[in-house]
Amino acid sequence: MAKIAVMGYGVVGSGVVEVLHKNHDSIAKKAKEEISVKYILDLRDFPEDPNRDLFIKDFSIIENDPEVEVVVECIGGQNPAYVFVKRSLLAGKNVATSNKELIATRGAELLKTARDKGVNLLFEASVGGGVPIIRPLHQCLAANEVCEIAGIVNGTTNFILSKMKNENMAFDDALKLAQDLGYAEKIDPSADIDGHDSCRKICILSSLAFGSHIYPDMVYTRGIRDITPTDITCAESNNYAVKLIAKTKRLPDGAVSAAVTPALVSHDSQLAGVEDVFNAILVRGDVLGDVVFYGRGAGKLPTASAVVADVIDLVQNRGTYKGLFWNDVDRENFHPFSEENVRCYVRFSGQNPFPDATALGGKLPEGQQAVITPELPFGEVESRLKQAKSQGTQVHNMMPVLNY
Amino acid sequence: MAKIAVMGYGVVGSGVVEVLHKNHDSIAKKAKEEISVKYILDLRDFPEDPNRDLFIKDFSIIENDPEVEVVVECIGGQNPAYVFVKRSLLAGKNVATSNKELIATRGAELLKTARDKGVNLLFEASVGGGVPIIRPLHQCLAANEVCEIAGIVNGTTNFILSKMKNENMAFDDALKLAQDLGYAEKIDPSADIDGHDSCRKICILSSLAFGSHIYPDMVYTRGIRDITPTDITCAESNNYAVKLIAKTKRLPDGAVSAAVTPALVSHDSQLAGVEDVFNAILVRGDVLGDVVFYGRGAGKLPTASAVVADVIDLVQNRGTYKGLFWNDVDRENFHPFSEENVRCYVRFSGQNPFPDATALGGKLPEGQQAVITPELPFGEVESRLKQAKSQGTQVHNMMPVLNY
To answer: pTM (2 decimals)?
Structure first.
């Protein structure tokens, strides 16, 4: 019998308890022993909950109970999650977490603590919800040097872009629909809309794939607020989809570059057809070529099932250090996105700032043109557009064209 | 330093040696020690090969060398692969194999031998080539009860169907092109074309997901020889793709049913857009919903990279039994496909054998009609068609319509 503690009884935490209960027998078979929840830590009271006897409010009970070998963190955010995870690891306990903010901002430090104590810190649910990506990247693709990762890792923005495309909705209307459906936060949806959630996830994937921590503030991050139905229609009529892409890449000089940006993606790409709240993550390996992992990126039970898969792994392997680890940041080997060579979609009125660009077809508002530039450092595209604006060209929008 | 032996120096075996060499440093880092090939077993001579000093022709050298803890089997086919793998396991060695025929026909027995000896038998490369599926199914989706698996698991037939669709080629012409490009066997392409390869793969996936071995002779297996451009055009104009689907499912009564069959799949499905030699495998879990794994299903280096990922895992975990296991066949809990309820596409001339079917639109040859039947046991569709034929209806083609 393995005893675990669940910290945080919100959407994911209560889902973890539910999945452990629902699939109790098959999980016990896979873990080769029963898994039982000994404590649930939450500051709130749940007097009607069937698990009400398990609730505690004092973390030190978990910390000091040697029977608890696995701790599940579903509190979210930085604190107190950070303190509780750190202290759990220092107490020699294995930890599974769904907390992307925690791993994106403190991953290197916490993984080092885990290694020093010979325990494991797993976080499959932090990226892709229920879509397996952390373990495949760490284990299944181990024979590959990963060259590049690109993903649609935020379901809310993908839902909004899908509605804008399929129903010709304006951004604000699609956002309101997403809020009404509970996909986007009502009060402040900016974590999704402005790309911060995607940024945290690509930080985690990049750190794991390339071995050095990338922090969110290092990553060029742009959301989808300024995407219009005009851009989407223009892209579609030229055989491109507009998607919010989180990407990381090893450049020819060995340095890493990462970005979150709306982008044009060819309809031939496996990423173009990902609609609604679904996620898809493409991993490009030197040996393997492209592999894509696709599925429902969020939701209570999918995310909980990823956490429980980690719990099963931790129970099965307690006593064995699994080697999931990356070093702290290596700023010398990180290049800003402005130095990466990309082609860009530009929609403008007035003089064409890129005389060598390829014109796009399709209907555009009176007086507007759309082009795709040749491959240029992204920073150069930005500065040429700035210059063109100062000379009277109206730039309506621009975004990279990415090849996946 | 971990010493391994590679048996079989064909496409995959030589690829394994190449990948171990090419990514030597990063692989050593992941395995936490160097991996070195001590022997290569092949009956042929390779006097010009840079590894020529490693070649041996006598298996017992590997069997009796205690330094070899991991054996890689890339011989293919049943014998001598079976004997060598069995003896390797009995000698207490861990084994990685790419041999789908071996696992589909002897998996339960060999996994039991491995368990008895406390060693691991891994076979990630046997399904999906480089696309990770065995390990995700076993580990990442461990919190789920898998309900259903459906995949495009044979690149050759998918290439042929893609050519028939995109270039309106007849089956024979598309097959010839596949042979010229080296995707299909020149002398006897039937393992691919008639669905046997897909059948072996679904046997492996079904056995792993549901815990009881399914043997190839239990599975309804139909290939793509009788698919015509007319069927594909008709399907496409009604928003369906024609795909060779290998599927397995737990039925409401708990029994398992499996089949390999060409089928109509809605354009909305993630399986419909899989083109060319690519593979995609959809796993439907009770908790997680649908997850799709997509990538290049064959090819020397992708397949080799999957084998090498297994080798890294075996080296890291030698001494730990990983619990990859299924029981032998449970025929009482296996239902033939004829009992499974499906809707079917039927193209015919003459009287409609399914008056309650839905007519399909689109252009068909003079006098022909196409319909989709209501949900019926597949065997009943077959027998109604037989009866209709005896009464003068010409049945041009039929296949299931599957919902993924």
So the answer is: 0.92
Do the Cβ atoms of A130 and B291 come within 8 Å? yes
3 state SS for chain A? CEEEEEECCCHHHHHHHHHHHHCHHHHHHHHCCCEEEEEEECCCCCCCCCCHHHEECCHHHHHCCCCEEEEEECCCCCCCHHHHHHHHHHCCCEEEECCHHHHHHHHHHHHHHHHHHCCCEECHHHCCCCCCCHHHHHHHCCCCCEEEEEEECCHHHHHHHHHHHHHCCCHHHHHHHHHHCCCCCCCCCHHHHCCHHHHHHHHHHHHHHHCECCCHHHCEECCCCCCCHHHHHHHHHCCEEEEEEEEEEECCCCCEEEEEEEEEEECCCCCCCCCCCEEEEEEEECCCEEEEEEEECCCHHHHHHHHHHHHHHHHHCCCCCCCCCCECCCHHHECCHHHCEEEEEEEEECCCCCCCCEECCCCCCCCEEEEECCCEEHHHHHHHHHHHHHCCCEEEEEEEEECC
Q: Exactly one of B100, B201, B243, B247 is catalytic; name it.
A: B201
Q: Which residue of A has its CA nearest to B210?
A: A26
Question: Given A302, A306, A307, which is nearest B289 (Cβ)?
Answer: A302
Assess whether B57 carries a catalytic annotation. no
- Chain A residue numbers with beta carbons less than 8 Å from the beta carbon of B19 are 143, 287
Interface touch A288/B294, C-beta < 8 Å: no
pLDDT along chain B (404 residues), means of 10: 97 96 93 95 95 97 98 96 98 98 98 97 94 90 91 97 96 96 92 97 97 97 97 97 97 94 95 93 91 90 94 91 93 95 97 96 94 98 97 97 95
Please pick, among A201, A243, A247, A249, the residue that the annotation labels catalytic: A201
Q: Per-residue pLDDT tens for B129-145? A: 889 999 999 888 888 88
Which positions in chain A touch B307 (Cβ < 8 Å)?
Answer: 143
